[in-house]
Amino acid sequence: MEFKLDLRTKEVVAQKEKIELINKDLTDSINYAKRIQLQLLPEKDDYKSMLPNSFVYYKPKDIVSGDFYWLKDLGNEIIIVCADCTGHGVPGGFMSMMGSMLIDKIVTSQRLDSSKILKQLNDEVIRMLSQYEGGEIQDGMDIALCVVDKDKKQLHFSGARNGIMIVSNGISTVYHADIIPVGGAFSN
Predict the structure, then answer these.
(1) How far apart (Å, rounded) are the C-alpha atoms in residues 181 and 172?
(2) What phi and psi values does residue 68 have, to the nearest 5 degrees?
(3) Spatial distance between the Cα atoms of 57 and 70, rounded to a whole number of angstroms
(4) What are phi and psi of 86, to 5 degrees?
(5) Considering the entire predicted model, what is its pTM?
(6) Do 124 and 106 meet the contact criterion of CB atoms below 8 Å apart?
(7) What is the pLDDT of residues 76-131, one digit of tens each?
(8) Four-residue CA torsion sign, 8, 13, 14, 16
């Protein structure tokens, strides 16, 4: 009886060590993915030089995030994006990386107004995830996108489920977004 118990204890310890090794490998891999994801986010110096009175509060729920922010100075315009992708953790991280790269591609390849950028992003997400007729993957993102025209001192906003609030001289004004998200068969 004692021999069987000792053998069983050794098996349990061996299984525990195997599970701990698998967990460490997974966690190391996800932490490395976090480093890649953070490289896609704008540096503090970037947005501070473009928008001196700005700040970003970014605190992911998990190691990798389904949220991202993005901005680019195009000379006379600054494009600002804040997005919340479907899911969190690894799936959300994939969506946020895809969204960030697609926005960069769209904005740097052609000059579009804010609503056309979102339309192009929607089309690209649907194309990449094959969401034409429903399908299994219906992921997308809620997004607020602003184009700041520095010369005209104008802000143009388009949003998919994410609005914005502008505070000026102590008065806040809310601008609501369209109720349809970016991505998913329900948005084409």
Answers:
(1) 25
(2) -155, 160
(3) 13
(4) -60, 135
(5) 0.86
(6) yes
(7) 999 999 999 987 789 899 999 999 999 999 999 988 899 999 999 999 999 998 88
(8) positive
Residue with tokens 């069987």: 4
Q: Bridge partners of 171?
A: 168
**pLDDT band for position 8 (cuts 50, 70, 90):** confident
Distance in angstroms (rounded) separating the CA atoms of residues 93 and 63: 9
Q: Report yes or no: 69 and 81 within 8 Å, Cβ to Cβ.
A: yes
Q: For the chain, what is the radius of gyration of the CA atoms?
A: 22
For residue range 50-81, list pLDDT tens digits in order: 999 888 999 998 999 999 999 999 999 999 99
